[in-house]
Amino acid sequence: MELSITIPAEWALHKAIWTCWPSAADLWQEDLEPARAEVAAMINALIAPHNGKFDHVKLLVSGKEAKQSAASVFDGKVELYDIPFGDVWLRDTGPIFANNESGESKAICFGFNGWGGKFVLEHDDALSTKLAACAKVSTQIVDFVLEGGSIDGNGEGVFLTTKQCLLNPNRNPSVTAENIEEVLRANLGAKKILWLDDGLLNDHTDGHIDNIARFIAPNKIICQSPFGVDDPNIEVLNNIYSDLCSMTNLNGDKFEIIRTPSPGKVLSVEGEIMPASHMNFVIGNGAVVMPHYSTASADEALRVLAEHFPNHKIIGIDASAILTGGGSFHCITQQEPK
After folding, report:
1. Average pLDDT over the chain, rounded to an integer
2. How many Å apart are CA 48 and CA 43, to the nearest integer?
3. Is the separation of the CB atoms in 214 and 283 below 8 Å?
């Protein structure tokens, strides 16, 4: 009989954090080296000890040039894996690591279809099983499209998600919320699903949760408040906060809801609104790495995280180059729990 599984919370101790080195020059173009510099800064923040704790980073590189580039930057400080991938968004293309009742690790490999067919790149749909083989853990393949960035768990079976993403017919046509909840119960050990409505404007992931609301403790959720009268997500962010305030945990108690300022209005070089978010932070063993975009709200967002992660070093890194690809630090990482 299959042992029941759990997805440990991101703040549980990690065996490793997996991530990707920007490797596709044709995709990143002039942003390739700036994006690599931001990823290097994130990795260096995670591997540096704080209170005696740090992360072991395992870095995927795709192709000879990328491998040489990463090797020259890290000089043996991280473990390199030459595995072909389309792009760096490992949270979505890679597996979700789980533990069973005996503490054994397993890689849950959902289907991936390029965020509803919008960005279909060679190798991305096969990456999860290849990474699982490198991690030397058993694999559970699930015939259902699901990206890791679309869910966020508290380590006790409660998951946040959005209707905009999981109920989008471009992932799994004709499924209902009840169908999805059954898939999450059967494969991720879910006990309760908290459904928010929509994500950020122009988020081509169709509203991933890791850009709008995150668990930072079993009964504590952080979300954003609008910053500036021209914040393009004023209504969305206020609705998220209102909805979270009405939600309850497994015991029927309300969550503590923390608000931190959004980056506000962030534009691309073409003048388009970008889905910039302070929520796309990575919780490491010793550090929390938060992306920012050099807006005036960044310092306050870092202060709020520091208040709620007193045993971690809070590090802010400008992620403007990575944002040109549509995501940030949480999108490019996946934790492997102990």
Report:
1. 97
2. 9
3. no
Structure token pair of residue 326? 């549509």
Whether 132 contacts 140, CB under 8 Å: no
In 3-state terms, what secondary structure has residue 71? helix
Average pLDDT over residues 169-190: 96
Q: What is the pLDDT of residue 1?
A: 41
pLDDT, position 2 = 56
Of these residues, 20, 109, 223, 331, which one is catalytic?
331
CA nearest to 97, candidates 58, 52, 51, 71: 58
Residues 279 and 210: beta-carbon distance below 8 Å? yes
User: What is the crossing angle of helices 64-74 and 32-47, to 10°?
Assistant: 40
Q: Which of 248, 149, 134, 245 is nearest to 193 (CA)?
A: 248
- Check residue 101 and give its pLDDT: 82
Q: Where are the alpha helices (DSSP H) in the chain?
A: 25-28, 32-47, 64-74, 90-93, 114-117, 127-135, 163-166, 177-188, 234-245, 298-308, 320-323
CA distance 11 to 94: 19
Q: Are 95 and 132 in contact (CB under 8 A)?
A: yes
* Beta strands 5-6 and 79-82, pairing class: unpaired
- Give the pLDDT of residue 103: 82
Please indicate whether residue 223 is annotated as part of the active site.
no
* Averaged pLDDT, 137-160: 97
